[in-house]
Design a protein that fits this description.
The protein is an all-alpha fold and about 240 residues long. It is built from ten helices and no strands. The chain has one domain. The longest helix is centred in the last third of the chain and has 42 residues.
Length: about 240
């Protein structure tokens, strides 16, 4: 009887810490932080979309018809990207995962080039080739170029059914996509003047891929440790 009770309660006590710790996985913490950036930027930077009296409408009036396809395409990519990293969605709804992936690629390839054009329009027509705006135009070229390159690499590898390499390049692609959020989040949270915008933008562009690789490295390290610990426990139980 005691043995039966021990077998009954042992799995529950063993599983409890695992269930609790699963909510504290680095992946979830990272995406929670990214979600906070989404929320902040939507509230502080994009709220003019639902407020016709916002002075931002005067600023975007000259290129508003370019901003519409850019915003829809890039916004679609930003919205869909986090779902592409869901293992449950990928396993249970593989077709939906592929469809959203196609929309993500399309959003990137449409939104990124239009973003360059809009920034260049600002530089030439609104700011009359201001040096800072010209620097931001070059930064937008780099950002869009790296984003499209990483996205196309991810697409190429999944077409070759090289899933692991596809995931790695999708991580890099997403890191480039959220530069849009990072710049506005950093500037707003730290209340930095526009004179710092050039430093913020270039820093975010330069750090995107290295940070993605750091995340990949940490993920692989944690996965290796978990596999090693599991093997060790199996050996001890057998012994």
């Amino acid at each position: 009887m005691k043995a039966d009770l021990a077998e009954t309660f042992q799995p529950t006590s063993a599983k409890a810490p695992t269930q609790r710790s699963s909510w504290l996985r680095p992946k979830y913490l990272l995406f929670a932080f990214i979600a906070s950036m989404y929320t902040y930027v939507l509230w502080h930077n994009e709220s003019f979309l639902i407020n016709r009296a916002d002075p931002e409408w005067l600023h975007i009036a000259p290129f508003k018809w370019l901003l519409l396809p850019h915003g829809l395409a890039a916004g679609c990519a930003l919205f869909l990207a986090p779902f592409q990293f869901s293992e449950r969605l990928r396993h249970r709804f593989a077709k939906l995962h592929r469809v959203m992936g196609r929309f993500y690629v399309g959003g990137c390839l449409v939104g990124a080039p239009i973003g360059i054009f809009i920034q260049n329009f600002n530089t030439v027509h609104l700011y009359h080739n201001d040096p800072v705006e010209f620097s931001l135009t070059i930064a937008s070229v780099f950002q869009a170029g790296i984003w499209m390159f990483c996205t196309l690499m991810a697409l190429a590898f999944i077409l070759q059914r090289k899933v692991q390499l596809h995931r790695q390049w999708m991580t890099r692609s997403f890191a480039c996509a959220i530069i849009f959020l990072e710049v506005r989040f950093v500037q707003g949270v730290f209340n930095l003047d526009f004179k710092y915008i050039e430093i913020i933008v270039w820093s975010c562009v330069a750090a995107a891929v290295p940070l993605a690789d750091l995340v990949l490295h940490i993920q692989e390290t944690l996965r290796t440790r978990a596999a090693t610990a599991k093997t060790t426990r199996a050996v001890v139980q057998v012994g």
